[in-house]
Amino acid sequence: MTEPFILVSDCDLPGTVIEDTLRQAGLRADRAASGSPDDIAALSADAEGLVVQWAQITGDVMDRMPNLRIISRVGIGYDMVDVEAATVRGIAVANTPSYCIEEVAAHTIAMIMSQARGLSAYDRAVRAGTWKAVDARPLAVRPSATTVSVLGFGRIGSMVARGCRALGFRVLVADPFAPADAVREAGCEPVEIAEAVARADILTLHVPLTDDTRHLIDAAALATMKPGAVVVNTCRGPLIDEEALAASLRAGHIGAAALDVFAGEPLAADSPLRDLDQVLLTPHAAWYSPEALADLPVHAAENVIRYLAGESVPIVNPSFATAR
């Protein structure tokens, strides 16, 4: 019997760990020449599994893969996959939600603390010859007098919330899917999204990117925030309307931002965010550590291996099974 064939649409991680892991499990594996629909289709006629990083996997792409059973995303977010189209075709979609939880939570808290204590401003001032402790901008906060609002209480959001509580911050959590008792047990206050945004001294985002959450933080939401508030995003870039954020920063309403993810990546050379001293920028690096880099491609491949073996994997569209 011919072993199942698994196609890797694209991956910018070094090496061939995905293919090697699949082959070691006895599966056939190959990588498309590029993530374009035509290059994927050229190898996909008998593919039962698809591993994808950035390629856009639409319903049309799926229709060119008649034997496809599972799509595994190399990463946590899965907005490059048309999950609804997969669901109606009876195709499971899995992600890799556990490979970088600690890293993203740590990066988020580092960004929160850098902006909350004015570290970038202090650093620039000292390098310029200024030695004044009282000139931090925009904040040099006392945690117990500062409210951090966490949107999303999943694996990463809950770790960020608990970490901020451990540092002494008051923490609000907005997540319609998180039990209020679980939020309270973490020492946090459950609230609705609008209240979390309005009460935040520091707002941090940890929600999936969907049609409902795209531009969740837009001009209207930013206008409800406290003057001088800080916005942190290590989740998905399009959760924020970047033009509205830049305008609010330039106007002096939002005090600062710390951003690891952007609507377009790499961040455009002419992005107004690059010119604002009160914005801390990192290159979609919150996920990274040597350990996470090693785990990510293996986890993505193991999703396919385990699924085809009938084992449990992190499926994001469990209703796919009823469409078969």
Description:
- By secondary structure, this protein is of the alpha/beta class.
- It is built from 12 helices and 12 strands.
- It has helices at residues 17-24, 37-43, 59-63, 83-88, 101-116, 119-127, 155-166, 180-185, 193-199, 219-223, 242-251, 290-308, and strands at 5-8, 28-31, 47-52, 70-73, 92-94, 147-151, 170-174, 189-190, 202-205, 230-233, 256-259, 279-281.
- The strands form 2 sheets. A 7-stranded parallel beta sheet has the order 8-7-6-9-10-11-12, sandwiched between helices. A 5-stranded parallel beta sheet has the order 2-1-3-4-5.
- Helix 1 (17-24) runs parallel beside helix 12 (290-308) and helix 5 crosses helix 7.
- It is elongated, with a radius of gyration of 22 Å.
- The relative contact order is 0.15.
- The mean pLDDT is 96.
- Rg over C-alpha atoms, rounded to the nearest angstrom: 22 Å
Widest beta sheet: strand line-up: 8-7-6-9-10-11-12
- In total, the number of strands is 12
Instruction: Give average pLDDT, whole number.
Output: 96
Strand content: 5-15%
**What series of H and E elements makes up the topology?**
EHEHEHEHEHHEHEHEHEHEHEEH
Oligomer: single chain
Largest sheet: 7 strands, parallel
N- and C-termini, Cα separation = 24 Å
Per DSSP, the total helix count is: 12
Structural class: alpha/beta
Summarize the structure.
The chain is built from 12 helices and 12 strands.
